[in-house]
Amino acid sequence: MKAHDGLYIDGGWRPAARPDDVIEVVNPADEQVIARVPAAGAQDVDAAVRAARAALPGWAATPPAERAARLTALRDTLAARRQEIAETVTAELGSPPAFSEAVHAGLPIAVAGTYAELAASRPFEEQVGNSTVLHEPVGVVGAITPWNYPLHQIVAKVAPALAAGCTIVLKPAEDTPLTAQLFAEAVHEAGVPAGVFNLVTGLGPVAGQALAEHPDVDLVSFTGSTAVGRRIGALAGGAVKRVALELGGKSANVVLPSADLAKAVNVGVANVMSNSGQTCSAWTRMLVHRDRYEEAVELAAAAAAKYGDRIGPLVNATQRARVRGYIEKGVAEGARLVTGGPEAPREKGYFVSPTVFADVTPEMTIAQEEIFGPVLSVLAYEDEDDALRIANGTVYGLAGAVWAGDEDEAVAFARRMDTGQVDINGGRFNPRAPFGGYKQSGVGRELGGHGLDEYLQTKSFQF
Question: Which residues form the Aldehyde dehydrogenase domain (predicted)?
Answer without folding.
Answer: 16-460
